[in-house]
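Re: export button greyed out
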Amino acid sequence: MSRSLFEKVWDAHVVEELPGGNALVFVDRVVAHEITTPQGAIEIQERFGDKLYNPDRIVAMNDHVSPAKDQETAIQAQVLRTWARRHGIKLYDIGDNGICHVMVPERGYVDPGSTMACGDSHTCTLGAFGTFALGIGTTPQAGAMLAQCLILQKPQVMRIDIEGKLGHGATAKDVILYVISKIGVKGGTNYVLEYHGSAVDAMSMDERMTLCNMAIEAGATSGMCEPDETTIDYLRGREAQPAGEAFEKKAAHWRSFRADPGATYDKIVKIDVSDLRPMVTWGTNPGEVVPADGKVPADANQTSLDYMGVEPGTALASLALDQAFIGSCTNSRLSDLRVAAEVLRGRKVTIPTIVTPGSQAVKRAAEREGLHDVFQDAGALWTHSSCGPCLGMSMGVVGPQMRCISSTNRNFPGRMGNGGRVHLASPAVVAASAVLGRIASPEDLQAVDTREKVLA
Amino acid sequence: MIVKGHALHIDRANIDTDQIIPARFLTGISKTGLGQYLFLGMPGGPEMLAAHPEANVVVARENFGCGSSREHAVWALTDRSFKAVIAPSFGRIFHENSYANGLIPIELQGEGLEAAMRSRTVDIDVSNEKLVFEGGKNYGFTLDPLRKRFILEGGFMEWMATKIDTVRTWEASRSKE
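Workaround output, generated via the alternate export path:
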C-alpha cells in the first residue's frame, strides 16, 4: 500500500496498538533542557529509582537562559547538569551550547526516519530532516525517559504542496506565515504537515527548519520534509554522525523515507509562492498576518486590535517601533544572520536592536565571516546564544505597550514581556525595520536609501 | 467521580499557554505552587479570577491551551483547584498534559458549549461522561478511553513503567532486522 512519509516513520515506531485509537510509539531520542526536564527527572529519581530506559537515547543542553540570570535559573541549570553527569548523558553547557532546536541538528543528533521528542513545542523544527519530532509536556517526557515511548493518537496527515520560486524578498519565514494564514492557527491541530513541492525541494536545511519550526503555530503535531541529498549533505561530517562507510550506509536507509507515489492524505493544500511578498503579523497570533506593505484587516478581532493598539485599516508601515530582535529557533541560524547582515551592512539602526545567534557554534561561524562587525557597526547589540526575549525570559524583554519587530515565532499577548506588542517577520524585514524605526521591508530601504549616506 | 463545578467563563478563542502562565514564571524545578501565576498573561485574567474565587472549571472557546508545551499551564490550573476545562477544541500538547495530571479536558461544541457559557454551575460525572448545567440541562461528552483512567486513578508514570519490558523486547527485535 502506498504510504506518506509520515506513515512510514510512524509504522516503523509503533510498539503496540492501544485502546481508543492510541498507540505506544517508540522515541529514538529525547532532547532535554533546563526549563521542562528537571521536574520529570526529579520524579523519576524519587519514585522510579532514578532509572532511565537508556541515557544514550537522551541529549541535554542548558539553552533557555544560559548563563543563568538569577538564582532560580542557576538552580535549573545545575539540576540538569548534575542529572546528566550522574547518568552519563551528553550535555551541552555554557560556552558550547545553544537553542536545542538549532543545536541538535547542527551537531547531527537527528536521523531522517527517526522519532524525537522534547518538552518544547518547537521540537517540530527537526521534522525538516524527515523525522517525526514533536513537542510534549514534562510528564510525557519523563515517561519517554523511563520507558522510551509515548502514548499518541495517530495524527492525520495534511499534504502541503508548495510550488513556485521564491522572489520579491520573500523567505521561508514568509512561506510559513502564509501557510498559517491559509490553514489557520488551529487548522493543523492533530495533523502532521507534510511539505512537498518544488519550493521545498529548493530550500536549504536552514530554510526547511524555519518552515517546520512554526508547524506548531498552525496547531500541528509536527511538520515534515522528505529527506533528500540536501538533508544527507547537511548531516555528513556532523559530530554525532559516524564517518565514512557507516554514514553512507545510514544515508542509503534514509533515502527510503519518501512518500510513495499515490500515497493518500487526509487533506491536501496547494500553495504557489511565486508572487509571495514579505509578511508581518499585526495581531496576537501568527495567523493574524498580512504583507509588510499591507493594512490591518477590516474584520479584525477586537481583542487583538485593543492589545496591539491598532485599528482596522492601519498601515503596518505606519507603525513606529521600539525594539527589533533577530534570534530564536525560527530564525537564528547562520543563513538568517547573513541575510540580516546584508541588509544592515553600511547602515545604522535607529531603534534598540538585538541580534542573538542560535548557538555558540553559529556565533563563532558568524564571527569568522565578520558578521559581528556588521551588526555592531550598525549599532546593534551582538549577544551570546540564548532563547532570550523570544519568550520574555531574558536579554531584551519588552515593556508594556512597547512595539517589537521580531524574527521569532509567537506574537501572543505578553509573550516577549507583559503588555509588549510583537510583530513577527523574517530576519530581512526585522533588519530593514530596525533601520527605519518602523515596519519596513528591504525594498523600502532601497527607496529611501540610507546606505550611501553612511558609507560617505 | 463527580465534580461539583463552578464556571470561569473565558469567552475567547486561542487562549495560549503564555497567557495561562507567562514564561517568566517557569524558572522553578517544582510542579507545585504555580497557581499564583495563573492567567497573569491573559488581558483581564487576574481580575476575572478575583471576581470568581469559587471557580474550578474553565469554560472557553476553541483552541484552548495552544502554543508552548509548558505543563506548568496545567499545574497552575490544578494548583488553583481547577478540575476541568470545557472548550470546543484544545492545543494537542495541553490536551495530553491535562490527562497526565488528572485535569479533565472536555470537548464540547455548539449548543452544549453555549449552555456552558451561560451556566454558573457545571457538574461533571466523569465516569458516565455527562455534564449537568444550571436548570438541569445535560450534555454528554467523550473522553479518551485509555487516558480516562489517569483522571480517575492517576498513575500515568506507573502505567508507562509497566511497558518497559514490552518496549525492550520490541527494540531488540527491531535491531535484528
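Chain B touches chain A through 50 residues (CB under 8 Å). The button fix ships in the next patch.
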